[in-house]
Amino acid sequence: MPIVKDEELDDVAIPQISLDVELEPSSNVPLLLAKHNAEWDIEDRKPLKKRKVFDGVLIPAFNRELQPSPKLEEQSQRVVSSQNRNHATSNSGPGDTESETDEKPNLTNLRAAEYEIKPKIKAEMNIDSNTFQERIARVGAPQYPVTLEPASARWQTVSRKFISRTYGGSEVSTFPMVDPKKVAKHGREFWMFWSLEKHPDAPKRPGEPGIWYDSSPMEYTEDFDIVRHGFARMNSDKWLYLGDYKQCATEALTQREWLLQSDKFHRIWTSLVQKKPWARHARAGIHLRKKWSREPTMEEIADAAMTEDFKNVTIEEIKDAFDQGQQRLGMLVLKCVGYDNDFQKELIDKFSSWIPPAKKTDSKGSKATSNTHTKQQAPRRKPRAKRGKKKQIESEDDSEGSGSFKEEELTDADGE
């Protein structure tokens, strides 16, 4: 039962009601309260303020059209140019570095396609992924963390002629020998350049590990101690610094692994071994095995490679040697052990202002190359209706630039 009490408030007797009820959705409490309000006058009491709650989504209205942001590529180029100007002051002290003085836009969210270079590679020349990963894991060659910012600066390429004229060394050699006088100036003696056409599993991205192929009959058992600046040819005359690399010994492609590869893989590699100068030791070994019915020594193979006795080795004989496990495709793991941020900035800075030397002209006004290491070009002749396949191969070997293996020819057979 409700209990009613009279309390005096400002000399006015106001009835107070205390209800002991349970509220349910279907309760008749509102009707009961309405009845009490009718019986007792409580107009002098102010009603309680209710809290108002907005239940919805507020969508702002725009009075103008949104303006597009600047192009990401232009933004990236401005940042790189700013870094180059700041890097001109070589002896910068604490607080003077680019990261401490410049407010650069964050380019880490750029899509890879905005600035990365994707070289064209013959997928048929790649070994299977399981063999590749097994060799990388066996050596212990993870991805090296590259910290150069902005990330687009990691993909700035240079030309071989620029490297040769600025730092020394041959324009076409895989492992160029640099003049000691130039080494004394810049302190960078060891370099390595690979073509992704012959080495499709070699590193393609900064800090990435990869595999270097070798056609010589020997198998490496020890790592090379020398650490080299590693460059990959991403496109015609576009060379990218990927980091500082060490060549690590690993097992050559086994007979079983060779047989697991595709038919296209077999055709391409056997054809290359038959044609290319860098595979003459492999051809010499195959020739001597057939001639003597035994395994030749390295000295015998080296002597035979200086002759022309092996020039008639056929593709069928080469493939049979690989299928039988007598000839194996050698491999070295390229392990990235460092990345020189200052060196990449230096390359970008110097290459941006570098002017290629003008080609020399003779007395008749015809152009002549200024590179003493390049073969003298033969006089032009009237083009023939058909060109023999053998002549095409020789021209490919002698040419520099797109599509050739000239980069490896000078050193692969002798230097590896």
UniProtKB/TrEMBL annotation:
Coiled coil: none annotated. Residues 157-350 form the DUF6697 domain. Residues 77-94 have a biased composition (Polar residues). InterPro entries: DUF6697 (IPR046520). Residues 68-111, 355-416 are annotated as: Disordered. Residues 378-390 have a biased composition (Basic residues). Signal peptide: none annotated. This is DUF6697 domain-containing protein.
